[in-house]
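Morning run. Coffee first, then this:
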Amino acid sequence: MSTRRRRFRRPQRMLTAPARALVTDFEYALPTPWLRPVRLTSLVCFISPLSSLMKICIVGLGYVGLPAACVLAEAGHEVVGVEIRAEVVEGLNEGRIHIDEPGLHDLLQEALRNNRFQAQTAPEPAEAFILCVPTPFKEGYQPDLAYVESAARSVLPVLKEGDLVVVESTIPVGATEKVAALIRTARPELTQEKLHVAHCPERVLPGNAIREIIYNDRVVGGTTPEATERAARLYRSFSRGTVAETTASTAELAKLAENTFRDINIAYANELSMLCNECGVDTEELIRLANMHPRVNIHAPGAGVGGHCIPVDPWFIVSRFPKEASLIRIAREVNIHKEEWVVDQVLQAARRHGASQVVMAGLTYKADVDDFRESPALRIAEQLAARLSQPLIGVDPYVAKLRQERQVGFDLQSEISLQAGTLVAVLVRHRQFGAALSEIETVSGAVLMDFCRGSGQPQLMGKWASEVQA
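And here it is:
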């Protein structure tokens, strides 16, 4: 075999602006001839002979499953995506995405052109199955594994000896073994040695999902050493981060520990903001000064904690270890209480300043994404709408999607509209709000309560800077 250096040139096709924002165009020159290049937009993913291409079935095409499916397809795998919503399946097969994720449309188009991706409503035989479905909690903050169990049952008819099943959904400790037991109960011929079951928790940040799927380190744990090795081999076929191998239980707890760490730190910042409000100290200044210490890094407070992971995952630990997880439970309670505290602060300010209307700026769970799952801002707005005497307007750039997903008890707008006496409570700082928040300084009697930068203390016009944090 020749050892002559191979030079892989830049892709010739033009990239859209979202794709260019995701990756840096470059040339690679590899001296190792046994690495085979697969282009990923302008990235190149190198797959060794130990990681053969395969047919993969991904169950669940949401914020995690669809980007993962497109990345796998670009890496050369044949991907079947399973989604129970027929309209989503039809749209994907026609090249339309149903979530807002930079660069995702380009990857889907490429996968369809190369015949490496097909969406459908039922699984079909494959070599690997990846379950990417929600894991919410039910009454009493108990984990709800109904979606995971349903996804596992959906692949039962098409499983065969030698297949790999990976659960990417965030799950409580012991759930991977339960999935394996569910499969073995229904298909007893697929023993532990004949079917490989593993857990590889997703680590995706909406709005940066594609880059994180490629570059983030991953943790893989199987129900057997062989299952671990098989799953790690699959993830190394497209990941440029480290793929660490461990047990299923350790992988499960690792994901829960990551998000619980973040929840506890946010709870501290949120509690500080309430303390600062009580004693008249500027929260933003306090945190800036405290963070001057080389070993201190206090988070920014907010209106609460939202999304599909951080406000959910700690409860998975608390439910399994109720006596031992006291700090974790208290942190969750602090972040839940912060929402109630924000409601009270807005009610008091609206009465004190005689607000003509109240504007809730930002309704998604975080800035610059179209995701309303577990959004504290949305819960706060709904509570205020039921208790305010003034009109309440919810403003968010992504209200069109919100209208499709649910009905709310207040008016919705995509842009902030100001009038005399408007009280604006900033719950989520979308970039689009920059101009309007600057304009509030010129509106007579306007009041700004910014819960993204401090305690939300009511500020009359001209007190706040207009720039918007990323």
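Residues 248-279 form the longest helix (32 residues). Good start to the day.
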